[in-house]
């Protein structure tokens, strides 16, 4: 069954005019990651490549295309974790870099820490030679439009969040059976400056353990943290549930316990995979055995050959 990679482009409600770009984005990212796996590359390289591509894609709320905070700025969170050693790296509230997921990986590889935040993360990025980019280059017309709309006195904050839930994430198992996850986000629209969400928090935004599996999550961060969604799903897998059942149990608990919707991508060590969500939509894609799988609405599942798209 191995290798496999599964990605998501965020749970929520995607405006009609953006659905096509979103589906295209997850499919392109999963293809790039699968090429790495098929060439014998590691699951960590694969998930970082997939998430990097989606950070660069303005259709998603991560990197270029991130939502704006209350002051109109961009602060981003990201995490990576590898299942062999349980090593992880994260950055939170980081500014002025194009690819927070790559900085998270550097935190894992080059420091003895699990997470660096804000100005400290920026200093570390500089020390590692990561180029600084102007904030303007991360902001799209669409994210500025959403932000402005949200400032209007009659704005409905819940409605405004919809369509900008596009956090991105990936999980993978490589041909050696090593498992990894990565998640990256601009957070929640209009968040307070300095707000840190679930994404960089181990066990909430993601978790990977070669003995159990891996999960990357998306949804309302404060709710995800309350139930430590990624680790909760892996707990259900430890209890013998399938990737699909465990994902649904975790999401159902979050819905009943804290009235929140979300989505996840999940793998187990044998290469079973799932893309599950309680929100109306989540763009997702998976690649395994040279087949591309993708979908957007509940119950949707399209397949095509990786090498011969039609
Ligand atoms: N779109 C998302 O998934 C948001 C992210 N979980 C956060 O709260 O920061």
UniProtKB/TrEMBL annotation:
Reaction(s) catalysed (UniProt annotation): L-asparagine + H2O = L-aspartate + NH4(+); Cleavage of a beta-linked Asp residue from the N-terminus of a polypeptide
Superkingdom per UniProt: Eukaryota
Positions contributing to substrate binding: 195-198, 218-221
Entry's EC annotation: 3.4.19.5, 3.5.1.1
Gene Ontology MF, one: asparaginase activity
Keywords attached to this entry: Autocatalytic cleavage, Hydrolase, Protease
GO annotation (BP), single: proteolysis
One Pfam family here: Asparaginase_2
Lineage, uppermost ranks: Eukaryota, Metazoa, Chordata, Craniata, Vertebrata
Catalytic residues (UniProt): 167 (nucleophile)
InterPro entries found in the cross-reference section: ASRGL1_meta, Peptidase_T2
Entry similarity comment: Belongs to the Ntn-hydrolase family.
Organism of provenance: Solea senegalensis (Senegalese sole)
Recorded GO CC terms: cytoplasm
Residues under site feature: Cleavage: 166-167
Protein name: Isoaspartyl peptidase/L-asparaginase
PANTHER family associated with the record: ISOASPARTYL PEPTIDASE_L-ASPARAGINASE, L-ASPARAGINASE
């Amino acid at each position: 069954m191995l290798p496999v990679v599964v990605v998501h482009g965020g749970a929520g409600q995607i405006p009609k005019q953006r659905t096509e770009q979103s589906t295209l984005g997850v499919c392109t990212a999963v293809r790039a990651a699968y090429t790495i796996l098929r060439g014998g590359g590691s699951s960590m390289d694969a998930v970082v490549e997939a998430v990097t591509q989606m950070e660069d894609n303005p259709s998603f709320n991560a990197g270029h295309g991130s939502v704006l905070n209350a002051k109109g700025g961009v602060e981003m969170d990201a995490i990576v974790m590898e299942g062999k050693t349980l090593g992880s790296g994260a950055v939170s509230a980081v500014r002025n870099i194009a690819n927070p997921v790559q900085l998270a990986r550097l935190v894992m590889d080059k420091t003895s820490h699990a997470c660096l935040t804000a100005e400290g993360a920026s200093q570390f990025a500089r020390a590692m030679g990561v180029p600084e980019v102007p904030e303007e280059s991360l902001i799209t017309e669409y994210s500025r439009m959403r932000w402005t709309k949200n400032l209007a006195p009659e704005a409905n904050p819940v409605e405004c969040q919809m369509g900008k839930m596009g956090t991105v994430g990936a999980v993978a198992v490589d041909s050696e059976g090593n498992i990894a996850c990565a998640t990256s986000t601009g957070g929640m629209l209009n968040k307070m400056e300095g707000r840190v969400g679930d994404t960089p928090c181990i066990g909430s935004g993601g978790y990977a353990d070669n003995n159990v599996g891996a999960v990357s999550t998306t949804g309302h961060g404060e709710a995800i943290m309350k139930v430590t969604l990624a680790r909760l799903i892996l707990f259900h897998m430890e209890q013998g549930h399938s990737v699909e059942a465990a994902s649904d149990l975790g999401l159902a608990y979050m819905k009943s316990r804290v009235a929140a919707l979300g989505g996840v991508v999940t793998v187990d060590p044998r290469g079973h995979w799932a893309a599950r969500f309680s929100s109306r939509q989540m763009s997702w894609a998976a690649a395994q055995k040279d087949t591309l799988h993708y979908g957007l609405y509940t119950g949707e599942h399209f397949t095509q050959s990786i090498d011969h798209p039609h």
